[in-house]
């Protein structure tokens, strides 16, 4: 028997929340310091999520042990509140037995090595300007080993003790972002202590630049996935960027969260699709009339081009749909007449495909929006739902 998916998600969420609460409480009490502007994780290990998703037996043991420990806590509290002595002893003994008899999982499966920034969250908000800045950082410092296409075949790669990994697939999402940050800041070492990748600490790259190069790598990997497999296998957010809107003036794309967006990439002078009451229209790249919203940040077009896996010059003509939670969900390519459910390129169950329907009528878009709203996606990093 394995845990049902919802229970597993809840367990993983609870594990992450408990660790964040512990980290922040220790920091609030003045017992721990900061690293890179956020409270530091003070322990050499953290809870590991990966094995929970893979090994059903392990997940069940973790859930049962958690249940036993919580129940034991309740019993201890009850014992403290109870007047009769004998009942107190009885409850305390039951609590102890529960903790001792719980099916404790093996520490090798439960724990993973940690660094002070393990639980850090990127402060960049996936801003379009940061993604573009990260691209320049990558070209200046990383291309020589990782290669222009991030496939690990840069000009210096063959001389290294090991080949750099492909940064175009799922690797970036298998890690916690705070741990990627640490590895870029402090470098990586192999088994014999030999350095495999140099660090780019203060003096070479600022903390913000490291977060930005990670944003760039993610945007680039997402674009590769879309180009090669026709899907965003990992959910990607609409980049944050300033928009000029008919109502509300200058505002960030994030402030439109809660509404669906239709993001139209265009060239100055091109005809725009009609406005649609079901979505906020956002025009990127020049507009003839005053649209609902238009990009007021020149970085948004190149950032979206990266996510689409095309050159900035080839981006106009694409249209993207963003769901109410801010995830990029559907793409229409240049010249495509209308929408169908197949344009949903980011789904909760990757690979789940629907039979193609006739596009080019209003119903295609209706069905697509219904499906997009019903099928919420969720980001997983290092095995933890975020
Ligand atoms: C001198 C060559 C070299 C340079 C320069 C370099 N890397 Fe690396 N990088 C490597 C090697 C080799 C590995 C694999 C190391 C290992 O697994 O022990 C690696 C691994 C990585 C990983 C994967 C980490 C993981 O968790 O598995 C990321 C991400 C990464 N590099 C990003 C960068 C970024 C960003 C830059 C530029 C700021 C950069 N690298 C510069 C050689 C390099």
Explain the overall architecture.
The strands form five sheets. Strands 8-7-11-10-9-12-13 form a seven-stranded mixed β-sheet, with no helix packed on it. Strands 1-2 form a two-stranded antiparallel ribbon. Strands 3-4 form a two-stranded antiparallel ribbon. The chain is built from twelve helices and 15 strands. The mean pLDDT is 92. It is α+β, with helices and mostly antiparallel strands and 386 residues long. The protein has three domains: 5-113, no CATH class; 128-229, Orthogonal Bundle (Cytochrome Bc1 Complex, Chain D, domain 2); 242-385, Glutaredoxin, CATH 3.40.30. The site of heme C (HEC) has 22 residues, from helix 7, helix 9 and strand 6.
In short:
The protein is α+β, with helices and mostly antiparallel strands and 386 residues long. The chain is 40% helix and 13% strand.
Strand content: 5-15%
Q: Using DSSP, what is the number of strands?
A: 15
Shape: globular
Small ligands present? heme C
């Amino acid at each position: 028997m394995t845990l049902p998916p919802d229970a597993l998600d809840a367990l993983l969420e609870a594990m992450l929340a408990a660790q964040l609460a512990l980290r922040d409480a220790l920091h609030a009490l003045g017992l721990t310091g900061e690293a890179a502007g956020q409270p530091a994780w003070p322990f050499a290990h953290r809870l590991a999520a990966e094995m929970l998703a893979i090994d059903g037996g392990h997940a069940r043991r973790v859930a049962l042990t958690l249940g036993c420990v919580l129940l034991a806590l309740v019993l201890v509290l009850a014992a403290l509140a109870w007047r009769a002595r004998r009942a107190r002893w009885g409850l305390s003994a039951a609590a102890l037995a529960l903790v001792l008899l719980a099916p404790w999982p093996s520490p090798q499966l439960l724990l993973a090595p940690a660094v002070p920034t393990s639980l850090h969250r990127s402060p960049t908000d996936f801003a379009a300007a940061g993604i573009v800045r990260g691209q320049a950082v990558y070209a200046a410092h990383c291309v020589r080993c990782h290669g222009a296409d991030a496939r690990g075949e840069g000009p210096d790669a063959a001389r290294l003790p090991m080949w750099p990994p492909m940064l175009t697939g799922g690797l970036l999402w298998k890690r916690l972002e705070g741990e990627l940050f640490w590895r870029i800041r402090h470098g990586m070492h192999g088994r014999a202590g030999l350095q495999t990748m140099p660090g780019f600490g203060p003096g070479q790259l600022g903390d913000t630049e490291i977060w930005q190069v990670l944003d760039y790598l993610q945007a680039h990997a997402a674009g590769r996935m879309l180009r090669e497999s026709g899907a965003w296998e990992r959910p990607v957010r609409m980049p944050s960027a300033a928009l000029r809107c008919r109502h509300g003036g200058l505002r960030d794309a994030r402030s439109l969260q809660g509404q669906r967006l239709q993001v139209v990439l265009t060239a100055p002078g091109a005809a725009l699709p009609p406005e649609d009451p079901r979505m906020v229209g956002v025009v990127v790249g020049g507009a003839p009339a005053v649209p609902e919203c238009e990009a007021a940040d020149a970085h948004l077009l190149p950032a979206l081009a990266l996510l689409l896996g095309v050159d900035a010059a080839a981006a106009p003509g694409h249209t993207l749909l963003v769901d109410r939670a801010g995830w990029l969900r559907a793409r229409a390519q240049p010249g495509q007449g209308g929408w169908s459910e197949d344009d949903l390129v980011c789904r909760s169950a990757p690979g789940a495909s629907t039979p193609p329907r006739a596009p080019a009528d209003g119903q295609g878009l209706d069905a697509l929006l219904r499906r997009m709203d019903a099928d919420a996606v969720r980001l997983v990093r290092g095995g933890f739902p975020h």
